[in-house]
């Protein structure tokens, strides 16, 4: 009986040592796993939709003569880092100017919509510039009621054609739609 006891004690001690070794090693691994960390820097870049109106409007020394074209080239540049759609509105500084000028000749790639904005029908990539919205303003020779317009009539005004423009990021959601329809859909929420 003594022999069994002699064998039992070392066997139990060996099992206890094995269990303690497993516990110590697994605790060390677990702590190493829980303490291990790796820093990762995520860089997020925010896109910007920015545009700039480019106007070519040479200074004049005298008022224009009726019928004489006045150069005013209006283009819009995408200065942001996203492709965008552009719309613009043209407003005379005085209501009287609408009656004194010929209808504006709008560029072929622009469409007037019922909201009063002209929509550029080609999405602009970063750095691209639209084709001209307008290139000139022409004062009429006669009012619509038949009265003539003189250079003095024009000189008495401070004629200004104000250009207001907006841009939205262009997102083509439906490849089956023509680009023009996608452009209008882009602006529909505004």
Describe this structure in words.
The chain is of the alpha+beta class. The protein folds into two domains: about 1-35; about 50-185, Immunoglobulin-like (Sandwich), CATH 2.60.40. The protein is about 30% helix and about 25% strand. The chain contains four helices and seven strands. The chain has helices spanning about 1-35, 95-100, 150-155, 180-185, and strands at about 50-55, 70-80, 85-90, 110, 120, 135-140, 160-170. It has a four-stranded antiparallel sheet with strand order 4-5-3-7. Strands 1-2-6 form a three-stranded antiparallel sheet, with no helix packed on it. The longest helix is centred in the N-terminal third of the chain and has 34 residues, at about 1-35. The radius of gyration is 38 Å and the shape is rod-shaped. The termini are far apart.
> What portion of residues belong to β-strands?
15-25%
Distance between the termini: 96 Å
Unreliably modeled segments: none
- CATH class call of the largest domain: Mainly Beta
Instruction: Determine the structural class based on helices, strands and strand pairing.
Output: alpha+beta
Shape: rod-shaped
Average pLDDT value?
81
Order of neighbouring strands in the sheet with most strands: 4-5-3-7
The structural domain count equals 2
Tally of helical runs? 4
What name does CATH use for the topology of the largest domain?
Answer: Immunoglobulin-like
Helix % is 25-40%
Extended strand count: 7
Using the CA coordinates, give the radius of gyration.
38 Å
| Major sheet summary line | 4 strands, antiparallel
One letter per element, helices H and strands E, the order comes to HEEEHEEEHEH
CATH architecture title of the largest domain? Sandwich
